[in-house]
Amino acid sequence: MLKVGVLGAGHLGKIHLRLLHQSQKYELIGFYDADEINGKKVSDEFGYSYFDNINKLIDNVDVVDIVTPTLSHYECAKKAVEKGKHIFIEKPITNTLEEAESLLDLAQTHNIKGQVGHVERFNPAFIAVKDKIQNPMFIETHRLAEFNPRGTDVPVVLDLMIHDIDAILSVVGSNVKRINASGVSVISNSPDIANARIEFENGCVANLTASRISLKNMRKSRFFQKDAYISVDFLEKKVEVVKMKDAPESPGDFDMILQNAEGVKKQIYFENPEIDTNNAILDELETFADAINTNTEPIVSLTQGTNALRVALEVIEAFKN
């Protein structure tokens, strides 16, 4: 079992602590929180060992799980990496692109592994259809959330849209060519609602909308590709796969047949991929343990986390144009 320590015991940090405590792949050594009062409160309530010195905790573990506010991600990760510890770091990887690129260099220098907490990659609905998403040419995403003060220290792009940016980058497999975007601040000092159009060099276009001031929650993505339409509901964990193939010469009574203007006939059929129930946060943490133990690439590498941050920051920069 890998010895692990958690930095940060806020809302998400407490979830990580609980899951790591339950995991058969980690031994939870303890946690550090900059707020000593909160740290002792969490320790008293749940029984986890509280370290009042961040370096002491890092020295006693193999893996450091960083669940602190984004502004402190880099400094926490740097301390861990320089001590030769593997790092799991919540999204976004760091506050700035320069910090992320510096962290990549540090990780390579010290030969450590790192994974970024883009948890939607482990959503069972996305897992069920990811292999079916092949060369999508148009993608539309909506990630809407009711207002919650937690997370408003960063623009909605870094808080919510970056989930979809990462998922899109993982399936498109092409460099970004052009970005147009707009964002509006309603409640916070940073944009609360944003829309981005991302064009890729291979011709794919992605239209992303994110809001943290909606009246209802929604997390849906739609992928359009040659002869297929794939819808993923990340919130309800449901998928819809609609495909087309050349129509048979003698279609059955219940076959759905479409004919275009050129007279080409296509048969419409539906697939129902099996969706396995899982705990996405536990899965991302445990697959990272597997990557360390087998010396393989983490599912969401530091490089991929950096690429998602780069595009997210380019979206924010496009607000000014």
TrEMBL record:
Q: Which Gene3D superfamilies match?
A: Dihydrodipicolinate Reductase, domain 2, NAD(P)-binding Rossmann-like Domain
Which domain of life does the UniProt lineage start with? Bacteria
- Which InterPro entries does the entry mention? Gfo/Idh/MocA-like_OxRdtase_N (IPR000683), Gfo/Idh/MocA_Oxidoreductases (IPR051450), GFO_IDH_MocA-like_dom (IPR055170), NAD(P)-bd_dom_sf (IPR036291)
Residues covered by the GFO/IDH/MocA-like oxidoreductase domain: 156-216
Domain named Gfo/Idh/MocA-like oxidoreductase N-terminal: which ranges?
A: 2-118
Q: Can you name this protein?
A: Gfo/Idh/MocA family protein
The species this protein was found in: Croceitalea marina
